Amino acid sequence: MKPNGKIRWQILTLLFFATTINYIDRQVIGLLKPTIEGDLGWSEADYGFIVTAFQIAYAIGLITTGRLLDKYGTRVGYLWAIVVWSIAGMAHATARGVTSFAIFRFVLGIGESANFPAAVKSVAEWFPKKERALAAGLFNSGSTVGAILGPLIVSGITVAFGWRWAFIITGALGFIWIIFWLAYYHVPEKHPKISKEELEYIHQDKDENNDEESIRWIELFKYKQTIGICSTRFISDWVWWFFLFWIPDFLSKTHGVNIKEVVLPLIIIYAVSSIGGIGGGWISSNFIKNGKSVDYARKVTILICALVILPVMLVPQVTNLWVAVALISLAAAGHQGWASNIFTIVSDIYPKNAVGSMMGLSGFLGAIGGALSASFVGILLESTGSYFFIFLLASSVYLLNWIILKISIKKIEPLKL
Fold it and tell me: What domain range is 234 assigned to?
């Protein structure tokens, strides 16, 4: 009989709120770009370089934090990560120019890089394989909830107290989460309230996942599955960063919305994307419950997500604000559905002791792609003032992802180490 799962839901709630806070903190600068740009005289290229600083740090952090999480565990690793990113977020209030903003964004990126490796590792520790895609979709929906709450919180604080206070107040949210993390989070084997039945339910895939084996991240490159997953992250992660850091400015400059008016469009975009993230996990998990293989479930769901994203190429030609918002919303939903499944594929293929390292490695490649694209987007906008090519590229990379996965991963199944 399936246990009631109360403890697993508590863990998932903690992961959800950590991801929510993570996205509120990283989104602040994108929301405030038009305001700070006028106050401090940034150019498009300046902003692109500031975003690049964050993403380079994010990449560096991912390649190291994944391994540290595997070595020291999620309880300690997550704690220190949120301390670092919360302090860095608050420190933005003291910035006076491009250089100081870039430095604080760099530190923020180091701290925030641990969020997804830690969350995916926690899901692998606490959920059996058949529930992981839905669990990943649920905690990952925190990114879109954070993106929804961000405009509300930031615009309200900015109007009332100024943009510097927006960084201080949002940065402080992480310290509240830490209290609950220390009170409730333990690995299953050490949780004081877990039952024998719950533990057996969680570990039903233990032999299949080869949990006792450990693998160094450098050894992951031996496997073609690693190349496939890392390639998809490299060519696609930047799209979500683009939505997060440039869409407020895009709506401001192409549709004339101000910091107050941009709140509703952004809420719609990220609310729909949240549904996409959960829906992508649900579709995949439902395929498995209905007798389809894990390979079929993940790949077909990713293809569906890729098709949903295609129409976003039309956004630069659209003159109506709400049509543009609808197309961007569908694309954001498709991305989140893709993310729920690509995260879960990592835990489908790699042993639990390597999940953090693999998430870190693939996230590193995704962040490198994001860093390169941030400077490229900034320079392209500076020189052409057009978003046409950016949206065209964003619309097409997910079909390419599906093809890469079909070629590089013939069947999604645990690695035989």
Answer: 6-408
